[in-house]
Amino acid sequence: MSAAENTCALPATAAVAVIGSGTMGAGIAQVAAMAGHPVQLYDSREGAATKAIGEIRATLDRLANKGKISAEQAEGASERLAVAGSLQEMRGARLVVEAIVEQLAAKQELFGKLEAIVDAQCILASNTSSISITHIGATLRHPERLVGMHFFNPVPQMALVEIIRGLASDAAVARCVQETARAWGKVPVLASSTPGFIVNRLARPYYAEALRVLNECGAQPATIDALLREAGGFRMGPFELMDLIGHDVNFAVTQSVFQAYFNDPRFTPSLIQQELVHAGYLGRKTGRGFYRYDAAADTPAPATEPVFDVPTVPLQLFGTHPLVEVVRARYKGRVEYCAPRADNLLLKGGPGRLYVTEGRTATQQSYDYNMPDVVLVDLALDYGQAPRLGLARADQCRDRAYQAVAGVLQSCGFAISPLQDVPGMAVMRTVCMLVNEAADAVNQGVCSRSDADMAMQKGVNYPRGPLAWADAIGIDTVANVLRQLSATYGEDRYRVSPLLQRLQASGRKFHE
């Protein structure tokens, strides 16, 4: 039976070989052994594989002692792990997963050697995070049995695995690897071999828009991070996440994707991050990035407005926007309920008018509406649960108007972080660009709609898949925000995905 006939998950008795015993390779070996496979671990460095297996066994023992797995499971997995002294010892493997250095030539050389060792049934897989599977397989005699099997770190804890098909990869082989990953307890998503695959491509706007807001002095990193966490619902803010990943790594991925897409402005790297890399301020691993990590460093607090008085006049609420419903339930002063309006007005508190951002600056909206006291509120995942909201005011807005609006929201339990008047604010522009990138990936056949959402939730812990988020806030909202950003900046970076345009024109959603 050829590799192309492997349409189901490999049986647990099938031998798995892992090449490279670093963090990723060791994690893959642990997961495969826990799934019941006999596993061989090979590393060209003397003693590295032996050391890695010892560490895996110690990890399994700790898990058993904590009750995470049974003693029998730990013992069985440990016994199934073995060191391979050479590549030739892998001739009986049904799946070989490569997790070596991220260099094209090194991977091509390794797989070329493996082709002469393993039999026709053996599937070859690369754990590459960024190199084209098509390019890796171009020098092979049988590239149809090569796929990508991109795990996320730490492998035993992270559920997602991207299964990547190169141009020559056999669909049945990819399906077999997908089902094998599922049998290992993972959540596999299928992608074509394009730059960044799914996660590394779709995640670029999360960093890029935060860096752009910072570059335009919209807010400091601690404030932007707090808004993305506390209003947006993301587990980590973009700046603290870049510090964790390492700016050398994050910047290199951005550069790689930018160059691979022939300098598409959507992926333009940030000069701010480049400066950090040049300075050696790489984040946690060097003790300094956007934040400092030495023992004496203070964690900067997000900008938060002092408590303002609520207006003495009745509050006017408009429509049924989720924030309006929260204010309606929490506000203790006098309230007048008004019909929805054609614009994005949410409330009037004294002279102040609060609108939800729709991509324009507050100053531009104030000019367009000929109303001086315009205040904008940023997007939140769930206004009923968000402890913090971002506000921006028009340059024409009087202090007392802004303070009246902020006071209303503060009286409803929100901490208020002020933003300079940048278009699209922080959370809204970030989410809309995430949606746009996901829509383009689907439109270009990189992945399915469900896999785009699943990849971002399971691979980088997003609170909601980007396409599901678009359905929640409205396709019209997303497309219109992007058009306003494009009009403000005059850049192709904010062009609206053709798929978004089609959905807006048809009145349909991503998931129906």
Describe it for me?
By secondary structure, the chain is α/β, with parallel strands linked by helices. The chain has 20 helices and 15 strands. The protein has helices at 23-34, 48-65, 71-80, 104-115, 133-137, 171-183, 199-202, 204-215, 221-230, 238-245, 247-260, 271-279, 322-330, 362-369, 399-411, 427-443, 449-460, 466-473, 475-489, 498-506, and strands at 16-19, 39-42, 81-83, 95-98, 123-126, 146-151, 160-165, 187-192, 315-318, 335-338, 345-349, 352-356, 374-377, 388-393, 415-419. The chain has an eight-stranded mixed β-sheet with strand order 3-2-1-4-5-6-7-8, sandwiched between helices. A seven-stranded mixed β-sheet has the order 10-9-11-12-13-14-15, with helices on both faces. Strand 1, helix 1 and strand 2 (39-42) form a beta-alpha-beta unit. It is elongated, with a radius of gyration of 26 Å. The two termini are 40 Å apart. Mean pLDDT is 96; it is low at 1-6.
